[in-house]
Every structure is written in structure tokens, then in C-alpha cells.
Amino acid sequence: MRRPQVKLDDGSSWALGWQIRHTPRGDVIQHYGNNKGFHAARSLFFRASRV
Predict the structure, then answer these.
(1) Exposure pattern of 8-33 as b/e (b: 16+ CB <10 Å)?
(2) Within a 13 Å sphere around the CA of 8, how many CA atoms are in the beta-carbon half?
(3) pTM here?
(4) Contact, 12 vs 23, CB < 8 A?
(5) How far apart are CA 39 and CA 5, in angstroms?
(6) Tell me, what's the pLDDT at 41?
(7) What pLDDT digit, counting tens, does each position of 1-51 carry?
(8) Three-state secondary structure along 21-38?
(9) Cα–Cα 20 to 30 A to 10, which of 23, 30, 36, 51?
């Protein structure tokens, strides 16, 4: 789910239906869905490792 499959640009990519936004502080993965009269969105933030 978090491994990029298709690079969109330097700041984002797609991974198995999830959009990944790459930031200096970590990645944000997002998924959206729409049906008639209903909208859902989910976002998760993963901090960059401190090595």
C-alpha cells in the first residue's frame, strides 16, 4: 500500500489505489471515494525516519 507503483511527479505517486504525497517530513497517503450523495476521504501521515 505504501510502495509507489506509478510516479506522477516529484511530489506524488500512486500505490494500489492510494495517492502518496512525498514531503520532507514524511509521506501522506490518501484515498478518496464518491457515491451518489456520499463522499469519503482517508489520509494517513508517516514521518520520515530519523537515521
Answers:
(1) eeeebbeeeebebebeeeebebeeee
(2) 10
(3) 0.70
(4) no
(5) 25
(6) 93
(7) 677 888 889 889 988 889 999 988 889 999 989 999 999 999 999 887 765
(8) EEECCEEEEEEEEEECCE
(9) 51
